[in-house]
Write a structure and sequence with these properties.
Layout (H helix, E strand, L loop, with lengths): L1 E6 L2 E4 L4 E9 L5 E8 L6 E7 L5 E3 L7 E6 L4 E6 L8 E9 L7 E2 L3 E6 L1
Parallel strand pairs: 2-11
Antiparallel strand pairs: 1-3, 3-8, 4-5, 4-9, 5-6, 7-8, 9-10, 9-11
Length: 119
């Protein structure tokens, strides 16, 4: 079983920055893919960024490219989402998720952290 705990959310003005952290415990090995998702009120959840622990490949949704960066610290079993040049439309609950490589769906989810960007 994998447990994921997000932190780092908060209130920030447009143009500001936040760094989200996702600390993983349990059986996290190099065969996992990690992802950040977000869900705004009244909207569907969307994938924001992803990271393959084994190959180091990354994914970003078009709306955050050039502004958000996903990274990891293997020693701490932690994945980060650095968010710069934040916009009001980035306001959402952000979730960290993990899935074993080869599995079609994300299997493990964190509790979410609120990010609010004021204009």
């Amino acid at each position: 079983q994998v447990q994921l705990v997000e932190s780092g959310g908060g209130l920030v003005q447009a143009g500001g920055s936040l760094r989200l952290s996702c600390a993983a415990s349990g059986r996290i090995f190099s065969s996992y893919t990690m992802g950040w998702f977000r869900q705004a009120p009244g909207k569907e959840r969307e994938a924001v960024a992803g990271f393959s622990w084994s190959g180091g490949s990354t994914y970003y949704v078009d709306s955050v490219k050039g502004r958000f960066t996903i990274s990891n610290d293997n020693a701490k079993n932690t994945v980060y989402l650095q968010m710069n040049s934040l916009k009001p439309e980035d306001t959402a609950v952000y979730y960290c998720a993990a899935r074993r490589i080869g599995r079609p769906n994300y299997e493990f989810w964190g509790q979410g952290t609120q990010v609010t960007v004021s204009s």
